[in-house]
Amino acid sequence: MCSNVVIRNVTILAPHDSPNTDGIDPDSSSNVCIEDCYISTGDDLIAIKSGWDEYGIAYGRPSSDITIRRITGSSPFAGFSVGSETSGGVENVLAEHLNFYSSGFGVHIKTNTGRGGFIRNITVSDVTLDNVRYGLRIAGDVGGHPGERYNHNALPIVDGLTIKNVQGQNIKEAGLLKGIPNSAFSRICLSNIKLHGSAPVRPWKCEAISGGALDVQPSPCTELTSTSGMSFCTNSL
Asked: Looking at the 3D structure of the chain, how many domains does it have?
């Protein structure tokens, strides 16, 4: 619930086996800049959030207009993430010049049925990964609920995500892109992504998504080759 925040030249350290030790979490906040930080923790290094299920929906304050750049670090979870508590919405985010190593995920955008809200207009660019299990994960089945009173019909909207200029070595799996059957994730754009491993990188897995892909290795899944998706992807670059 903050606005006009600058976090710069900060080092955050926690053991990799320490639970719930996120580095920096802008939550229902706007006009935030996070730059030139080193973070090594036991959970997501940076996670943008906006409230949890019915509580976040009722409060209804998005996280918006957030810039993240020149972040280096390591985590058994994600270097950069959105969610999974995004019930107030997350929009207009630029994350660029990220360097993550010895981590679970490079980029993890996550939500769940019951969250409601939206994740839209997110751009992640110029990412270097080394020894990371998943290069990218965008998923609609992540995160628990604070109780049983949440609205099971509150489906999140995920639309307009651009991931570009990603170079990875020692990668195990390219990534998982899994939307929600009744609320497919749309306008997902992957561009200039090259993921390599000491063994063949396991291929992309996709479900309930649409969008486009340009110059992606390993080869993208067929869900990212539609004409409309390619148009969005070209215009977003």
From this structure: 1
Is 43 one of the annotated active-site residues of the chain?
A: yes
Span 173-187, mean pLDDT? Answer: 96
- What the block records as the tokens of 104 is 């679970």
* Candidate list 43, 44, 53, 159, residue with the active-site label: 43
Is the distance from CB of 171 to CB of 144 less than 8 angstroms?
Answer: no
Look at residues 103, 38, 90 and name the one whose alpha carbon lies nearest to residue 64: 90
Q: How confident is the model at residue 231 (pLDDT cuts 50, 70, 90)?
A: confident
pLDDT at 236: 73
Domain that residue 214 falls in: 3-235
Cα–Cα distance for residue pair 207/131, rounded to 1 Å: 26
Beta bridge pairs of residue 125 = 96, 164
Where residue 63 sits, what CATH number does that domain have?
2.160.20.10
Q: Which two tokens stand for residue 101?
A: 């190593």
Cβ atoms of 135 and 175 within 8 Å: the answer is yes
In three-state form (DSSP H/G/I as H, E/B as E, the rest C), the secondary structure along the chain is CCEEEEEECCEEECCCCCCCCCCECCECCEEEEEEEEEEECCCCCEEEECCCHHHHHHHCCCEEEEEEEEEEEECCCEEEEECCCCCCCEEEEEEEEEEEEEEEEEEEEECECCCCCEEEEEEEEEEEEEEEEEEEEEECECCCCCCCCCCCCCCCEEEEEEEEEEEEEEEEEEEEEECECCECEEEEEEEEEEECCCCCCECCEEECEEEEEEEEECCCCHHHECHHHHHHHHHCC
